[in-house]
Amino acid sequence: MTMTSRERVLAALNHREPDRVPVDLSGHRSSGIAAIAYAKLRKHLGLKGKPIRVYDPVQQLAIVDADVLEIFGVDTIELGRGFALEDGAWAGWILPDGTPCQMPVWALPDRGAGEWVIRSKSGRTIARMPDGALYFEQAYFPFAEEGGPPTIPEAMEEAMWAAVASPPGPLAEGPGGVELLSQGAKELREKTSRAIIGLFGGNLFETGQFLYRNDNFFILLASEPKKAHEFLDKLVEIHLANLERFLGAVGASIDIVLFGDDLGMQTGPLLSPKMYREFFKPRHQVLWNRAKKLADVKVMLHSCGGIRELIPDLIDAGLDAVNPVQVSCRGMGARELKAEFGKELVFWGGGCDTQSILPDETPQKIREHVRRQVETLSPGGGFVFQQVHNLMANVPPENIVAMYEAVNSLS
């Protein structure tokens, strides 16, 4: 029996084999495509010219239009696609390769000396993209500076990853924001059969890095655990209040709620299992369990890198799915992960290595690689196809097409 996209994704999330492998492209901000690559892809596919809208200014990710979603058999959609639909929400800009595009009016970069910059509401430069670069980097770390903002909410207004919003944008934060969120989510639910992913964030480990800077936050965890616990307790209070508001507005309209915390690097976890259990596991458990009580949703965590040693604790804390399953990292081989954790954890990703294979190999090699990954990860459900993280600006369009042709040929 042919399933709808939503049914297909939910079957996989419930560890049942769907009618075909579910496919994600741009369902969240780590399964998307760089705007430069997207413009080339549309041209390669021979599609009608459309404005390229960069909904994530920091990572320079494009909104993937309905025609491309249809061509590649995509089963997911991000909640943000229900917002900023009017032309007035967008303003003209130019991508680093000279391609015209549009950016959200509330995050339009300013031109500096040999660079583009994004400023906070206070006027501070919080992100920079030097000429020749392809994305923005954080330029200010509030708690690393003398005289920085005194509170976490004020600091987050000055930190790039928290302050630069993608749709629905700042309108959802002001008066009437709950109603705007609720209405936009309901309308999106009514017009799509795709599984809807609500991006919440709720970062703990990463927010410490965003505010203190990586080195300072690691030092804080190791040398001042009492202060670190106090910071994280305050952060959880903030996240819980935001989660109540967010899921109160959109919980009935989404299928997956996405949290974020990059816990790994190429060679393994960024912190020991012992440190994860002390500082982060109990707090993840509080947030994830609260999300499930507030709405009928599956909880997914975005975590890059090698996290094999942390997976048992993530499962125990209530995690349903993990992405992007960075298979090129130590301990992250698809076969081993599926054998050890496949009955308890959904692998949302790992379908194609974007570190070395997708940008560099031939279309035929990519097809062979994708087939091996899918055949390893899909049996018994518990798998949604996604390439490992975003499709970067240098990925040839023919390689992108080969990747989706391969997964769809197995259906």
CATH topology: TIM Barrel
Helicity level, as a percent range?
25-40%
Radius of gyration: 20 Å
In the sheet with the most strands, the strands line up as 3-10-11-14-15-16-17
Whole-number total of structural domains:
1
Poorly predicted ranges (pLDDT <50, ≥5 residues)? Answer: none
Instruction: Specify the CATH architecture.
Output: Alpha-Beta Barrel
Q: Tell me the distance between the termini.
A: 13 Å
Brief descriptors of the model:
four-stranded antiparallel sheet, seven-stranded parallel sheet, TIM Barrel, alpha/beta, 411 residues, 39% helix
Short description:
Helices cover 39% and strands 15% of the residues. With 411 residues, it is of the alpha/beta class. It has a single domain (5-32, 72-86, 152-409), classed as TIM Barrel (Alpha-Beta Barrel), CATH 3.20.20.
What would your notes on this structure say?
This protein is globular. 50% of the residues are buried. The chain is α/β, with parallel strands linked by helices and 411 residues long. Helix 6 (177-191) crosses helix 9 (225-250). It contains 15 helices and 17 strands. The strands form 5 sheets. A 7-stranded parallel beta sheet has the order 3-10-11-14-15-16-17. The protein has a 4-stranded antiparallel beta sheet with strand order 6-7-8-9, with no helix packed on it. A two-stranded antiparallel ribbon has the order 1-2. The protein has a single domain, classed as TIM Barrel (Alpha-Beta Barrel), CATH 3.20.20.
